[in-house]
Specification:
Blueprint lengths: L14 E10 L7 H22 L7 E4 L3 E5 L6 H20 L9 E13 L2 E3 L1 H9 L3 H9 L5 E6 H6 L14 E7 L2 E8 L5 H12 L16 E10 L2 E9 L14
Parallel strand pairs: 4-6
Antiparallel strand pairs: 1-3, 1-4, 2-3, 4-5, 6-8, 7-8, 9-10
């Protein structure tokens, strides 16, 4: 009996992966020579932080995008190690880098999510690469880094990672240090959790609320209708952008069935 063939090419079968994007603040204001220098700085920072954490960057599927690197990490990557020790070492290495005299300061926005990813001709496809690209450009994350001028790093993790990993009780993770934000970028909407190493939530929250306003308590009754859910409408990530539509956020009713409504 012949084995049914897969509709996916072998190297493009979707898998669950941890995805990460790191983006440099105010990169476009730099001249060409300095842009080249800080790109090298970013790669070295990520390499050093990964090595100190015990992660092998050679196994990351990396997609450079000028002032940003998007990466898909191997299946076996411990998520708590990325959200805890890796962030700690990245913050420390940024501090060392930015202590140099007469050198451009490197400040990073970093986003992390986990979910379905597939290899594609121009990079990666699936809802998670799209979500990470939107999270790293969240207006709340930009506002936080702009307001906390002494910070070198601002991190946002998806609600999925926060609920499954951050709140799980790992010793290197501190749930109370994160501030929840409802992110809307282009066609994307979803909850994320923002943390700035070296700064408490009371310092982060004003910038978050200046963009999106105060949110209901995560443990309150008001949250019962705002549990994040995920819908993909013909969305495909291509490089750092997306064609199609993606909504990750408030529950949506399906379109009515019947004449004129394709299921």
């Amino acid at each position: 009996m012949t084995k049914p063939s897969s509709p996916w090419p072998q190297d493009a079968i979707p898998h669950r992966r941890l995805c990460l994007a790191a983006d440099m603040e105010q990169y476009s204001r730099l001249d060409t020579r300095t842009q080249s220098a800080v790109q090298s700085d970013l790669v070295r920072l990520l390499d050093e932080a990964a090595t100190l954490t015990g992660l092998d960057r050679a196994t990351w599927a990396r997609q450079p995008q000028g002032d940003q690197e998007f990466a898909v990490l191997p299946e076996a990557t411990p998520e708590a190690a990325v959200l805890g020790p890796f962030m700690h070492h990245l913050t420390a290495r940024l501090g060392v880098l930015n202590a140099r005299l007469a050198a451009p300061r490197v400040r990073l926005r970093l986003a992390v999510d986990t979910g379905v990813v597939a290899a594609a001709a121009l990079g990666h496809a699936g809802p998670t690469p799209v979500a990470v690209a939107r999270y790293v450009n969240a207006p709340q994350l930009r506002a936080v880094l702009a307001s906390l001028t002494s910070a070198d790093l601002a991190v946002i993790v998806s609600d999925r990672l926060y609920q499954d990993v951050v709140r799980f009780g790992h010793p290197d993770l501190h749930p109370a240090q994160y501030v929840r934000a409802h992110v809307r970028v282009k066609e994307f909407g979803g909850y994320g959790w923002i943390r700035v190493p070296g700064h408490g939530p009371d310092e982060v929250r004003p910038s978050v609320e200046s963009v999106s306003g105060p949110l209901p308590s995560p443990d309150g009754v008001a949250l019962s209708r705002t549990t994040p859910s995920q819908y993909v409408h013909q969305g495909v990530a291509v490089g750092g952008d997306v064609s199609g539509g993606l909504t990750v956020g408030l529950p949506m009713d399906p379109p009515p069935a019947g004449p004129g409504h394709a299921l």
